[in-house]
Amino acid sequence: MSDMTELAEPVETGHQMRDEIRSISDRSRARRQVRSRIMVVLCAIALSVTAVPLVLLLFQLFNRGLPVVLHTGFYTQLPQTPSLIAPNATGGVSNAILGTLVLTLYASVMAIPVGVLVGVYLAESDSKLAATLRVISQTMAGAPSILMGLFAFSFVVRDLHVGFSAIAGSFALAVLMLPVIVISSEIAVRGVPHTLREAGLALGAKPHKVSMKIVLPAAMTGIVTGIILAISRAIGETAPVLLVIGGGYINSWKPLDPVSALPLSIYENAKSEWPSLRTEVWGIALVLVVFVFVLSLSARIWASRKQQAR
Amino acid sequence: MSIVIPPPPDFTTHEGGGAEFNSATPSRTWYHYVLILASIVFAAVSVGFIGTILWNALPDFEHHTGTLLGGNGWQSPAGPFGGLAMIVGTLETSVVALVIAVVIGLGTSISIVFLLPRRFRNVVATLVELLAAVPSVVYGLWGFLVLAPWMLKTVIPWLNSWPFAKELFGNPGQQDGQSLLLASIVLAVMILPTFVAISREVISVVPNDLIEASLSLGATRWQMIREVVLPTAKIGLFGATFLALARATGETVAVALIAGGVANVQYHLLYPGTSIASWIATEFGEAQGNEISALMALGVLLMLVNFGLSLISRWLVSRQRKVLAVV
Lengths: 310, 327
Fold this sequence. Notes:
The complex is a heterodimer. By secondary structure, chain A is mainly α. Chain A has 12 helices and no strands. Chain A has 2 domains: 68 residues; 216 residues, MetI-like (MetI-like fold, Orthogonal Bundle). Chain B is mainly α. Chains A and B meet through helix 2, helix 4, helix 5, helix 6 and helix 7 of A and helix 1, helix 2, helix 3, helix 4 and helix 5 of B.
């Protein structure tokens, strides 16, 4: 019966229903939009929270590190252990700067040729070996760096009787860099257009000539970018070198000498009881961060510029 | 430090290269042998890497497997060497760090892809990459010399003013501020760029058709993100999470500086603890004989966890690519 009474006034009910639906939908839309606004604001807050550590860290680094790095002795002197008589005598970190350069150099000499060649092989082959190596390189690229230190200790320091030395540290760093170089070289070589390769083959060049003279030069930008990124990662690593380089207080280029490294002296100075060493540590960290930032930024800028040129 | 997952090789469009070395045509020149030789060197190094650590850990596994996995306490010269404290510490720090990093990282990725004007996207992406480039020892230094005193002076008294906080986090009193909680926070900062790099990529390849379809049906921006983008990207986001977890478990020197290096099983996060990787780093210098093989055994454990996590993550990200190929 009630249905009949409602149907008795069709026009008015239609208006009423329309208005009601409209108001419900307005309310729901308002609610949805408010919720959307809130979530968008929360996302923006998350973005700024991500930036906070970087800003704070850089501020602390420059604020506390700059006074330290402005002394020339910081770069030229050997470190000294402060004593009660001279609590502020910290010396410099020439050995650590030289050590980092030496370690990176030897590690690059070991890792770059092998890494690039393996990358080229992976890009040009689909054999069983290549498929296996691809999985291995991707797994190794994420392996904890302390494990490289354990490997270098057991193999180089102990089994080969080399002792704590620069070469053991650079071996650990080379193992760390290898998979990174392999992966980036493979991507770079795969990125070379097939038309280039086919043009070379069509002109009658042998496959290995095409690979060496056409594909490799075309992929060079990507390969070099990968190498620089691998180096900038290796420079900052503490854990692998901590176990094997011996932390020597000497300036030496020789591969069999114990050396120091910037990350290692940061680690040791930070744990030290002397306030003067804890002040100096910010300078070392600033030098290291500048090294790493310059390397990775230049790799990035160079890669994007070359890409635009193409 | 950032780990880039390359797209899986696409053999369907890649004919020239693969056929080159495997075909019957006589292309086996010296160049080919050099490439093969380099690959064998690389394979040997990788096998040697895993084999050496396993081999050196063997004495410990022969005698003390039970102690390593279940024992508490680490008596330095002679043993027993119990790994429970390190295992629990690794779990606690990396899971807390992961929760923080995923919540903040997901918001960051969404903002980078959907909220920021196109001009700023590259700048912000570069900044996130810089965050990844900072060496972990510098994070450790920052946490140890700046954050630890700040925790001690500000955060801990504030936390303790909440009800039940003392029961949950513990009340360390006057120590030097090193704690599992601080280690987790710094770890979160360190794994954030890894998570953002991958989740940003995963989110940004969600097809525009889907996004526009949902917007045209009257969805708000958030509804579009929650109902369309996140479900489509779900598998890849899990992949990013696992990779971030893998990185958190392997982080060494930062945790060694911040967590405090105390080998006790600790369920209250404000007390100092340790993790597998950082324990290896701090104890290895003075280790002799059996202790070395015990530390190597911890290394094996770390390797298994890490390799497992990164394989899972890689499998998830590649499945995400297949899902998108179907859409």
